[in-house]
Amino acid sequence: MILNMNRCVLLCRNEHTGGYFLLLFRNAKFSIATKFAVAAAIFFSCSGLVVLCALLTLAASSPLTPMDILWLMACCAAITVPCFYYLFNKLCRGMVCRPLEALTYTATELGSAPLPTEIPKEFELDALTMALVRSGEVFSRRMQNATERRSYFESLFKGMPGYVSVVDTSFTIVHANNAFMETFAIAEGRSCRHVCTREFPGGNCPVAKVFISQEPVVVTEEGMYPDGTAALWLVSVSPVFDAMGQLTAAIESRLDISEVVKADVCSLYGT
Q: What are the record keywords, sorted (predicted)?
């Protein structure tokens, strides 16, 4: 008990270990109460056994009175109650306490943030509560960081110059930047064939070539904007693989080089 109290005092001096102080102090009280209950149960059982033997000895010489029967019942209870207490304690230890200890250890290992110090005092499972709250806080922070990073990269992707899109293996546009969706009036989830005004996806499409070769492709492609304006695009397509090495999508980037080619032709012929 002195050792436990010393540990509690040392932990109490650290402002970051208020939760641990509460837990150890309550565990110390629980340990004393348990030892006292066991000692009382053993004493109660032994006393009941002695009185039961005396009553049985008296019953052999004379009939039992109603008061003797009550004492006999009390003695039987004094003997059986500790047995039930032992069985109940054993079952609780094996079926409840040990699984909770394992769950507490697992939850503690999952978390890496400091333990919260403000835990409701009415909770009996302090260790499990603190570990689960800690792991929940860490998980929430990680999810928030992941969401922020995703928003950051998504804003970069949406603002990229040119016409950028991500096409899956079924030739469906999964993602596209703002310029792509505004220029071609195609929302995410539609087939990429509408960009090139093809009747069916595939064929001589650079995305289809990437799906077959699984290698990056850079080509020039003539086409038309939705308003009928002719265009010459420099199309760059790169494959996207998952963690297992399977091809899952392709990133296509289109740059309109019509004006560049026209300027080169004019400078070449001097017109």
A: Membrane, Transmembrane, Transmembrane helix
Query: What CATH number is given to the structural domain containing 214?
Result: 3.30.450.20
Helices (DSSP H) in the chain: which residue ranges?
2-12, 18-61, 66-92, 98-110, 126-158, 178-184, 206-213, 258-269
Tell me whether strands 230-241 and 217-224 are parallel, antiparallel or unpaired: antiparallel
* Confidence grade of residue 22 (pLDDT, cut at 50, 70, 90): very low
Predicted confidence (pLDDT) per residue in 2-20, tens digit: 334 344 434 344 444 444 4
Q: Indicate whether 147 belongs to any domain.
A: no
The model's confidence at residue 241, banded by pLDDT at 50, 70 and 90, is: very high
Of residues 129, 122, 124, 86, the one with CA closest to residue 104: 129
Average pLDDT of the residues in 179-196: 78
Q: How many domains does the chain have?
A: 2
CA 3-4-6 angle, 5° bins = 65
CA-CA distances (angstroms) from residue 155 to 86, 100, 263?
64, 44, 33
Its domain, for residue 86, covers 2-142
- Here the tokens at position 269 are 């012929």
Rounded mean pLDDT of the chain?
70
